[in-house]
Amino acid sequence: MEILLVEDEEAIRDVLKSYFLNEGWNVRETDNGKQALQWIQNFKIDLIVLDLMIGGIQGEDVCRKIRQFSKVPIIMITSKVKEADTINGLNLGADDYIAKPFRTKEVIARIHALKRRMDMLTNDNLHRTAIKRFNRGRLSINHTTNEVFVNGERVELTHTEFKLLAVLTKRPGKIYSRHDLMYEVHGYRNIDVGRTIDMHIRNLRAKIEEDPREPIYIVTKIGSGYKFDFQSEAEIS
Fold first, then answer.
1. Do 47 and 151 share a domain, yes or no?
2. How far apart are the first and last CA of the chain?
3. Residue 81: CATH number of its domain
4. 3-class secondary-structure state, position 45
5. Do residues 61 and 158 share a domain?
6. How many domains in the chain?
7. Which of 152-185 are b and which e, b meaning 16 or more Cβ less than 10 Å from the residue's Cβ?
8. pLDDT at 184
9. Is the terminal CB of the chain with fewer CB neighbours within 10 Å at N or C?
10. Does some domain include residue 153?
């Protein structure tokens, strides 16, 4: 796995790089947001560990720009610990968010969980009907290319958003609690799960629902969780 490590503190960068190399991962490292964007555009990167307080271009802007052309998984690492900062990071398209100070082994565990999730998504798609359509074809999901179309127009989803949609549509009508979705989507359980899943749902609704305030696909079951409210109408293998 090719990891891009974007971190401005040399000591933290050296420790993380050492652990990453010990896991057998290749590492590109920089403390500069502008250089990070150049590398992402010029090299195959499998995962990005991104600090927000970096030189050149701030981490939030780096994340925003990446999401304009790439779905590469992003784990944000930052000293910004307010809930609003976490929500903002997820809104920008981050797949996970870790606050400083952190334990290096936790970062490694989060990366392994994200990698398992990516591998599971790939394996699921190999054994799943390629295209599923819902609501008279207004929503279609291509599990071969990981693409989603709304009214014939392709919408850009992050890895996390696509996995979330894939989980919900795999068993339409099933109610998933937030903790269930955290495990299915992130590969681990977290006691502070509510806002993270809610924000991913909110972002996903904004992309696939005609009116996110009155969703017809991803429905909230108060006190229980979420469910997908349409059965698949057409499947093409």
1. no
2. 30
3. 3.40.50.2300
4. coil
5. no
6. 2
7. eeeeebbbbbbbbbbbbbeeeeeebebebbbbbb
8. 80
9. C
10. yes
- Sign of CA pseudo-dihedral 141, 184, 196, 97: negative
Q: Are 160 and 200 in contact (CB under 8 A)?
A: yes
**If DSSP codes are grouped into helix, strand and coil, which group holds residue 88?**
helix
Torsion of the alpha carbons at 91, 95, 101 and 104, rounded to the nearest 10: -170
Same domain, 184 and 86: no
Are residues 146 and 114 located together in one domain of the fold? no
Q: Three-state SS for 223?
A: coil
Containing structural domain, residue 191: 129-236
Is the pTM of the predicted complex or chain greater than 0.70? no
Per-residue pLDDT, 237: 43
Q: Could you tell me if 210 and 168 lie in one domain?
A: yes
Q: At what angle do helices 59-66 and 83-91 cross, to 10 degrees?
A: 30
Residue ending a domain, choose from 86, 119, 152? 119
Q: What is the pLDDT of residues 14-69, one digit of tens each?
A: 999 999 999 999 999 999 999 999 999 888 899 999 998 887 888 889 999 998 88
Helix residue ranges, H only, the chain: 10-22, 33-42, 59-66, 83-91, 104-126, 159-170, 178-186, 194-208
- Tens digits of residue pLDDT in 182-207: 878 766 555 455 577 888 899 999 99
